[in-house]
Structure formats: C-alpha cells, structure tokens
Amino acid sequence: MKKGKVKASVTFAISNEFEAVSLPKSPFGGFWIEENLTSSSLEAFLKAVILELKQRRIAFIRVIQPPKVYEPKTDLINYLLFKEGFIQERILSHQFFVGKKKIKKLVQKEHAKSQKKAKDEGLTIQVGHIQNFSFLDQVRSWNQSRGYQIGFEDARIINQVSEFPDRYFLITFVKDKRAIAHSLCNTVLPGSLYYFLSAIDPKSTLKNVGDLILFTLFQLAAELKVSFIDLGSSENEVGVNHNLMFFKSRFSNEISNKISWTLKL
Predict the structure, then answer these.
(1) What is the top-level taxon of the source organism (predicted)?
(2) Arch. (CATH architecture) of 8-92+258-264
(3) Which of these ranges, 20-24, 98-102, 147-151, has the smallest mean pLDDT?
(4) Contact 168, 184 (CB under 8 A)
C-alpha cells in the first residue's frame, strides 16, 4: 500500500494444519496487482508475504494464480513465484472469448439463426438468477449417465449462490414442458462471465444443443456488457479432453493457464 492505495494484494485461508491457501474452494485466488509495479517491487512484496507467513508458523503455502485474462501481470507473478522456490503442482488451460465489442458483434451476427433454431425445435429458453436447486440433481444424473466425472458439490454451490445470488445465472432449455439442458455461470469478477457447469439430457434427440447453450451464454454476456467469457478448462479423469477443447475452440479466441503453486516452509 502506498499513499492509502493498494498496489498489490493476496488473500489466504489458514487451516488448523497451518496451511495457507489462496484460495480454497474457489476458482482461484493468487496475487493481484492493482496498479503498475516494477518487478523488484513485486518481488519484495512476495518475499514480505512469505516472511509474514513464516512468522505465523505456516508450514505450507498453496497459491492458485488466475489466468492472464483475469490478471495481466500473471506471467510475471508466475515467474517470481518460481524464482522463490514455488513448485508447479497443477496447470489447467482455460479457453476464453475476449472483447466486449467482439461478443456483441458475434451475438448480432448469430441471433436470427439461433432464434430460428430454437423455434423450429420447439425450445423455450429460460435465463435468470437461480430460484431453486433441483437442476443440480438433473445435471448430476445426466452427466453420470454419459460417464462424465462429477466435479461439483451441491452444498458448496448452494452456499455460494446464497451468499452472492446476483452473481449466478442459470440457463435452462425446456421442450414439451420438460428441462433438457442446464448451464450455470457466474460473474467471478466484474466484467467477466464464467461458464463452469453444464449438462444435456442424454435422452434428448435434438442436435447442436451445446451450440445453442453457448450462444445463449454469449447473449447473456452481451446483456451484462462483460469484457470476456471464461469457458473453463477441458479435462477428464484421464487427462486432456480434446473433443471438448475443440468444441470450445469454435467459441474462443484466447487460451491462458491457471497454475497452482506450492511451497513448503
């Protein structure tokens, strides 16, 4: 902090086992630079954080550094973390669509075709804040029947939505009064929209539902006037989900990595 202004920040949760994590049960935490800092100033801040944690008898540090699209200085931060002895524990590659004007342009271009597709298929598209959580059971059931790994906890989502109800949006496709698809997204940070949970009823015979879901996501992003959409990572239990990455590549124009760093003190 200088002259009352925060220049850089990091938030940790400290466990009973004296582990400091930034941040647990969140998409990421990490170091954030509020204003331009020199590399030497940022290095000094990092060293000061490590020293403070040592003095608090912390034995282990984990930092989940966000992709560069969220924090432009992430490459420099990752470099300095490495130089301080942090070890890369995990890397997830996120695909993004970046650019407020580009989002708006894509929506304008594809709107008529999307509307016709939904009408021809007899689909009702519902978009809004979450009113109840029954959709989670359907998401789990549909994804399990497809053999997908279940990577979410109901209680965690319910708690997060209850705490920040205005940040979460649910997209639901209905046909013949029955839900056939759900997609959950949220504004992790102002100016962003994060697409992180989606499922399609395997019994549905409709084609290209995934395309319609993402286009509806883009429509929501345009309405919210966000600067970018985070389509998340594409992995399964055996490694990279190349099919999912290819699908998302049709709706993305940027790739950036989220890296988890660890350090034993």
Answers:
(1) Bacteria
(2) 3-Layer(aba) Sandwich (3.40)
(3) 147-151
(4) yes
